[in-house]
Amino acid sequence: MELPCAVLLGEPGSGKSTELQRALRAARATGRRATLIDCRELVSADAFASTLSADQAMLAWRGEQSPITLFIDSLDEGMLTSEMLPIAIIQALQQLDRDRLTVRIACRTGEWPTYVESRLRSLWPDERLEVLEIAPLTREDVHRSAVAHGV
After folding, report:
1. CA neighbours closer than 13 Å in the CB half-sphere of residue 131
2. 140 vs 20, 89, 97, 145, 147, CA distance in Å?
């Protein structure tokens, strides 16, 4: 079973947005309905809900029974415009059919609000939420990988 909610944390330039874009393309390539909201483009907390409700993929999804993956990129950059953005996102997610919804969120590690994680865990209990962190490789990481691949 696919993990319903995952958060990808990392430092600036670590590849969070690139990974979300890759996953978005992969989802669409398999015929799965998927959409992306880039929080850098939101001018207020209210803009998240209005962007979500006007999104063509979300509109189509609401009228059918298929699943959708919602990618939310640059949460930290959206919080620069509105510190209420994380609450607006949680409130919007509460209104959606989470049995048919998969969510992927990207945020800088140092900006990730812990209260958002606890709210997400209440929406997806029983370990149905995972928080992952992209971290730079160490020499030991590279060595282990090289050994494992016979290099």
Report:
1. 13
2. 27, 38, 43, 9, 10
Nearest to 30, CA basis, from 102, 133, 92: 102
> Which tens digits make up the pLDDT trace of 72-84?
999 999 998 888 9
Interstrand relation of 5-10 and 101-108 (parallel, antiparallel or unpaired): parallel
Model-level pTM?
A: 0.88
C-alpha distances in angstroms, 54 versus 51, 63, 75, 99, 150? Answer: 5, 13, 19, 21, 51
User: What is the residue whose two structure tokens read 């919007």?
Assistant: 92
Which of the 8 DSSP states describes residue 41?
A: G
CA 5 to each of CA 80, 84, 141, 149: distance values in angstroms, whole numbers, following the listed order: 23, 21, 27, 31
Q: How many CB atoms lie within 10 A of CB 119?
A: 17
Q: What are the backbone dihedrals phi and psi of residue 66, each rounded to the nearest 5 degrees, phi first?
A: -80, 165
